[in-house]
Amino acid sequence: MAARLYAAGCDDLERAGALDLLRESLKRAWISEEEFQQFDRVRRLRNPIVHFRRPLAPDTLEYRAVQEDARPDEIAQSDAQEILNAVFNVLQRSAV
Hints:
Structural class: mainly alpha
Order of helices and strands: HHHHH
Shape: elongated
Distance between the termini: 16 Å
Number of strands: 0
Largest sheet: none
Number of helices: 5
Oligomer: single chain
């Protein structure tokens, strides 16, 4: 999305965060509202993995594992499948 927006002349979004990129893509009708919601969920799944959170903060993988009575690796695998499905859905539609 960032590359496509940049190619469309959105130089001001060169260092934008994921939420800003999603909003602009939705505004341009490059993604649907459903896809926006799906990617926003993916963004929220990703954030506690790549950005520090206190142990057992509510959005961490460990906290979710306790809440869902599941192993962290099972949750991580499910999240990864959801992320890949979201990405490939948009890529498939955009493929040449």
